[in-house]
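Course assignment 3, question 2. Fill in each field.
Student: A.L.
Task: Predict the tertiary structure for the chain below.
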Amino acid sequence: MLDQLRIELFQQTIALVKQRFEKGERNLLPAIFEVLKQNDVNLVKATMNHEYGQSFLENVFKSYREAIRPTLKQKITYLTDNQFDYYYSYVSNGIIGVILAWIDKGMYQETDVLEKIIVEMIFQSEKQLAYEVKKLARLSNRK
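Answer field:
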């Protein structure tokens, strides 16, 4: 029964993320939170234990890695594919940790607040990444 619920949660999440992505929305968080909040807290906690929850969310983020790559590479001029991969891993794993903590705490925290905090952290880290990538590109051009 738990396996069936896990499959349904994953399918619902991917479908909602895809629908919103096609409309131009690049933030996966609202869709993830929406699907999880539609279900009973105890069921979500049971199905999204640390081991499965980590795997579940990693698969959600992996499924959209390549769709997000061109957007970020357009925003950050000298960003290499390798740098993108590390950055995407950094951001997605941080978000996964926050979502798992939210589930573990009973999903009581308003997700709007979490989304704003996470989006601001991503924005700040993108700015820092752009600065570092530009700096590295200048150093490479000098050689």
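Instructor remarks: The CA atoms of residues 5 and 15 lie 15 Å apart. The two ends are 60 Å apart (CA to CA).
Grade: pending
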